[in-house]
Amino acid sequence: MHAPNGEPESTVTVLLTGADSQLSKALLRVLAKAAYRFDGRTLRVHALSHAELDIGDKQSVEAAFARFKPEWVINCAAYNAVDRAEMAADEAYRVNSLGPELLASECALTGARLVHISSDYVFSGEPACIAELALNQNSLTDSSLSNSGLIESGLTERGLTENATPAPLSVYGQSKLAGEQAVLRILAERAIVIRTAWLYGVDGHNFVKTMLRLMATASDAQPLTVINDQIGSPTWVDALAYLIWQLIASPLSVGCGSGLFHYAGQGQCSWYEFALEIQRQALALKLLDKAVPISAIDSLSYAAKALEKGNKLAPRPSYSALNSDKVRQCLTGQNLALTHCPELWRDWRWQLKAMLEDYAAKGL
Ligand SMILES: NC(=O)C1=CN([C@@H]2O[C@H](COP(=O)(O)OP(=O)(O)OC[C@H]3O[C@@H](n4cnc5c(N)ncnc54)[C@H](OP(=O)(O)O)[C@@H]3O)[C@@H](O)[C@H]2O)C=CC1
Ligand SMILES: Cc1cn([C@H]2C[C@H](O)[C@@H](COP(=O)(O)OP(=O)(O)O[C@H]3O[C@@H](C)C(=O)[C@@H](O)[C@H]3O)O2)c(=O)[nH]c1=O
Question: What task does this protein carry out (predicted)?
Fold first, then answer.
């Protein structure tokens, strides 16, 4: 008995786009450790780089589907340069919106299922979006829905749910929102769209690695300045990878509603608090020799300083912490094996420690 692609029935073919991304590398790393099986079948994963598959090119997408005949596609490809996207909107939309649309259309034709990744930058952090969070929690009256009041009351502590209203401030955020909407329009519940945030891991470019580099070279005379009025949820990319394999291994029941999910490290912080914690943990692991001064700065002053140097920054959300309860309830409700995967529901500080230990072990 053979599957449509001619391979033995006992394998499930998964196609990863954007093979050089942080996420694609984490998916392969996690799979090597966890040896997931799917209905007793093993996985056959094909990870295609940008050069091998351009997701914004219809012919390229059709050729990849024709060649590999995937049952699942995980879209790790994206245009992620948030500042550059402001001046390169066409390319950002081609990769972040047209790309997912082409993948979803091909999945609809072939019956494959799609996991697509979106971003917390679809939110603005403005009071209207936060207000929705409070209303979802049935906790406040209209008169008390002020942004600062919510933060003081602790109601934002659990983050934005899937019901919060997106209002992206940047071209990157707008193009990501267009991409997730296209996928859900075409595939509805056959798609899994995961909004995540502030991703970091041992591979590729990310805030943690940038901070480690800057901390290693900063001096008392030139301290680091880091924004303290943007709040979000740092997320270890390996934990996201575990979640994705888990979602593929245990398809969710219809009761889980739409295919849109939030997933991030638990808790929330500002970039400034994140930087302080990176330094604290890196010193403890001897990844850094000495502490360097880190000062807090507000977004407006940071953007003004960047502009003085000729760099125009894209606006970023002031509040975009994500609430992962929906996906957690859907998964744990039906798969007790999740207790073997504690990384998923850990506080962001725990996840950071896991990443830095991995980083130290690799001698990076
Ligand atoms: N990084 C983050 O903090 C966050 C990321 N996300 C989302 O998570 C997903 C994974 O992100 P991450 O692992 O950080 O990604 P990376 O930035 O590490 O990698 C993105 C990859 O996409 C590739 N790529 C760009 N354009 C195309 C294209 N047209 N066709 C195929 N490949 C292309 C790039 O290749 P090349 O470099 O060769 O062009 C690169 O390898 C993305 O959807 C991203 O938007 C969501 C929230 C936070
Ligand atoms: C390097 C640096 C950044 N910052 C600020 C700028 C910015 O507001 C914030 C993060 O900076 P970065 O440019 O590293 O990160 P940024 O590109 O904004 O990160 C985003 O990437 C996209 C892809 C996402 O989807 C988001 O979830 C988020 O992770 O920290 C400082 O304040 N000081 C610094 O020294």
Answer: Catalyzes the reduction of dTDP-6-deoxy-L-lyxo-4-hexulose to yield dTDP-L-rhamnose.
